[in-house]
């Protein structure tokens, strides 16, 4: 145990004295939560600019524009009636534009079908939001014209049992991202350094075993992850009044996840010969996992085959578990994810602890 | 040279190292091809040879870091391929191309390394170890800021923390400037004076000649010659060289005109005399010939001459000349 503590202490000193390591482990996740917070903390109240060319310019078209404004999502800006709509959109780099055709009022009065056209980029999430809002406004306008009254109405509420702010929903993903990247990228880089500088051989002349060396790294990374999570949460609470709560199951998930990804880094390290290989392997494994495991985008949005891939990724269960316990308050579901994460961690630990050799071939 | 020291643990004449028929083969090469040697306690034993000769492979087998294909390697009577753990604490290692941990200072590095041998090391012991290697004034400087020579000395300090009886120094001075090399030689001599047995690999002929009690010259995985530097020189470096310093082409031509065989080297003219009884006569003869001359002196053979004779080429920075 003394050897493990000594190795963890020496490793920790070196790590924390390296500005790069400290930045990515402690500062970068804080920057990330600040960015997410800044971008999304106003979600639900933010508005989309909609450029409207009103070719009819009649009381009916004005009433329709009022209906659009009443959605509280869209704020319209006028486009001159004599402008060519496609040229205008291109010249002014407009992402959302609506055209109300001539004869709009006449058609409304005559109860004949009239079509408004929405221009936009369907790959942007704002287009979907705008389309839904315009559609809602049209429905409301139609009800008004028909003199009808809506029977069903909508009230929104959050699924969160704990955090009630939007930023709280991002917290598990950011923690998962940090628990993945810091140990995984760190260990692959360390393995490359230890191999090229022959530290593995040098360590082979001491009493420190491979398993002890790995445990020392895990010990340090667990402490580092808790420091990182504390900073993330402190930034979220201080800047965005986040309500995030670190539950006991979340703490266990962070520990299991850190063991998992530190060991995975070591496992990959068996195949790493130098720094270039290290970066390539870590990026090839880490980046797809980062995006496919639901750290930043809900897995439910993925096509079915990608959902299958996501279910094979270890980070998915860490993210799901953190989401379940920290946001939904569903500890039973989180415990299942914890068990899966712990089993994967054990497998990832045992393989490099046995396969890595201090000895040269 | 030749200063055997009795080991302090009472195993009076136990060999520090005993290698018999050692082989290490890879699919297409024989890195070590059936070598035998032994190292007596308190001696500096040097494995000398060019890069790729098999020196480091041999040392790494003795350090328990490689398994041999055949043969036996014993350290303090223990077979290192089976029971290296038993003698680990009696062995200190400075690996080839040693680089310390960049962000630890020498004081921290020595303490850290001691703990990996389960040794509690006091601040005074750490200071004494750093004093031994001359790093006291740099004890708090992160290793990344140390010079090449200081880094190697730190490596030696780390090798010494377990208070080993045997120290492996694998090319400890490679890449260092002449001043740093000589400083390290002093340190290595001091270690021997302190009772340590040292196995030194090097490709510097002068280093082996200056430091080693025994030398084994390796080439292509084999030991081509063994003995003390004096023995090797007398056995393989027969003869005396008369050096006509500054004689240049004119001196060379003058000797040729009188039928004296000579060769030129760096502006000097060298006359080799095989028979010791002929040295005086030849010296008088060449001294009487008119030629531009700064000085004239005789030079006994060196390990370099031995190496040249045995291997057939010169060696520079571990690489054999074509």
What does this structure look like?
- The complex is a heterodimer of chains A (about 350) and B (about 325).
- Chain A is mainly alpha-helical.
- Chain A has two domains: about 1-40 and about 165-355, no CATH class; about 50-145, 3-Layer(aba) Sandwich (abc type-2 transporter like fold), CATH 3.40.1710.10.
- Chain A is built from 14 helices and four strands.
- In chain A, α3 packs across α6 and α7 (about 165-195) runs antiparallel to α9 (about 210-240).
- Chain A is elongated, with a radius of gyration of 27 Å.
- Chain A starts with a helix and ends in a 6-residue tail after the last helix.
- The mean pLDDT of chain A is about 85.
- With about 325 residues, chain B is an alpha/beta fold.
- Chain B has two domains: about 15-235, P-loop containing nucleotide triphosphate hydrolases (Rossmann fold, 3-Layer(aba) Sandwich), CATH 3.40.50.300; about 240-300, 2-Layer Sandwich (Alpha-Beta Plaits), CATH 3.30.70.
- Chain B is built from eleven helices and 16 strands.
- Chain B has helices spanning about 55-60, 80-85, 105-115, 125-130, 150-160, 180-195, 205-210, 230-235, 250-255, 280-285, 305-310; strands spanning about 15-25, 30-40, 45-50, 70-75, 80, 90-95, 165-170, 195-200, 215-220, 220-225, 240-245, 265, 270-275, 295-300, 315, 320.
- In chain B, β9 (about 215-220) and β10 (about 220-225) form a beta hairpin.
- The longest helix of chain B is centred in the middle third of the chain and has 16 residues, at about 180-195.
- The model of chain B is unreliable at about 1-10 (pLDDT under 50).
- At the A-B interface, α1 and α8 of A face α3 of B.
């Amino acid at each position: 145990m003394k050897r493990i503590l000594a190795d963890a202490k020496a490793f920790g000193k070196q790590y924390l004295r390296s500005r790069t390591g400290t930045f990515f482990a402690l500062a970068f996740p804080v920057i990330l939560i600040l960015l997410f917070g800044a971008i999304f903390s106003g979600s639900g109240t933010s508005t989309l600019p909609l450029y409207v060319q009103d070719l009819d310019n009649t009381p009916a078209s004005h009433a329709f524009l009022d209906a659009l404004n009443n959605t509280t999502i869209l704020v319209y800006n006028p486009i001159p009636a004599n402008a060519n709509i496609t040229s205008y959109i291109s010249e002014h780099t407009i992402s959302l534009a609506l055209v109300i055709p001539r004869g709009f009022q006449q058609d409304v009065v005559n109860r004949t079908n009239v079509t408004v056209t929405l221009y936009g980029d369907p790959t942007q999430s704002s287009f979907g939001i705008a389309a839904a809002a315009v559609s809602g406004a049209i429905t409301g306008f139609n009800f008004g014209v028909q003199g009808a009254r809506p029977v069903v109405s909508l009230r929104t509420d959050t699924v969160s049992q704990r955090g009630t702010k939007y930023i709280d929903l991002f917290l598990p993903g950011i923690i998962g991202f940090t628990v993945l990247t810091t140990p995984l990228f760190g260990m692959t880089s360390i393995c490359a350094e230890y191999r090229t500088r022959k530290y593995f051989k040098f360590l082979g002349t001491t009493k420190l075993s491979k398993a002890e060396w790995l445990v020392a790294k895990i010990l340090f990374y667990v402490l580092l992850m808790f420091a990182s999570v504390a900073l993330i949460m402190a930034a979220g609470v201080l800047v965005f009044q986040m309500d995030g709560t670190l539950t006991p199951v979340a703490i266990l998930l962070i520990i299991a996840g850190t063991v998992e990804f530190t060991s995975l880094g070591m496992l990959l390290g068996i195949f790493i010969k130098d720094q270039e290989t290290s970066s390539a392997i870590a990026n090839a494994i880490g980046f797809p996992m980062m995006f496919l495991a639901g750290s930043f985008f809900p897995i439910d949005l993925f096509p079915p085959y990608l959902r299958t891939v996501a279910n094979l990724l270890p980070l998915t269960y860490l993210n799901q578990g953190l989401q379940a316990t920290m946001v939904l308050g569903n500890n039973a579901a989180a415990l299942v994810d914890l068990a899966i994460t712990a089993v994967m961690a054990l497998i990832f630990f045992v393989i490099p602890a046995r396969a890595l050799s201090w000895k040269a071939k | 040279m030749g200063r055997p020291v009795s080991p302090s643990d009472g195993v009076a004449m136990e060999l520090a190292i005993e290698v018999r028929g050692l082989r290490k083969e890879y699919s297409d090469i024989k890195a070590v091809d059936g070598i035998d040697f032994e190292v007596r306690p308190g001696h500096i034993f040097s494995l000398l040879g060019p890069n790729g000769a098999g020196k480091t492979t041999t040392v790494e087998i003795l350090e328990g870091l490689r398994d041999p294909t055949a043969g036996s390697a014993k350290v303090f009577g223990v077979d290192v391929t089976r029971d290296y753990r038993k003698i680990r604490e009696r062995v200190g290692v400075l690996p080839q191309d040693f680089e310390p941990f960049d962000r630890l200072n020498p004081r921290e590095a020595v303490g850290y390394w001691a703990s990996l041998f389960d040794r509690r090391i006091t601040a005074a012991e750490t200071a004494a170890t750093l004093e031994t290697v001359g790093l006291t004034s740099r004890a708090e400087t992160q290793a990344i800021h140390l010079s090449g020579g200081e880094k190697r000395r730190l490596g030696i300090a780390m090798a010494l923390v377990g208070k080993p009886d045997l120290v492996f120094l694998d090319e400890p001075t490679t890449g260092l400037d002449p001043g740093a090399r000589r400083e390290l030689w002093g340190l290595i001599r001091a270690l021997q004076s302190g009772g340590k047995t040292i196995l030194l690999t090097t490709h510097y002929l002068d280093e082996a000649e200056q430091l080693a009690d025994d030398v084994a010259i390796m080439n292509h995985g084999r030991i081509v010659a063994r003995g003390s530097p004096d023995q090797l020189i007398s056995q393989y470096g027969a003869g005396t060289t008369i050096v006509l310093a500054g004689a240049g082409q004119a001196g060379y031509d003058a000797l040729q005109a009188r039928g004296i065989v000579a060769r030129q080297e760096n502006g000097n003219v060298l006359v080799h005399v095989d028979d010791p009884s002929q040295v005086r006569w030849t010296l008088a003869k060449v001294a009487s010939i008119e030629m531009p001359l700064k000085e004239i002196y005789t030079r006994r053979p060196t390990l370099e001459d031995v190496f040249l004779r045995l291997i057939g080429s010169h060696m520079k920075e571990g690489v054999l000349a074509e």
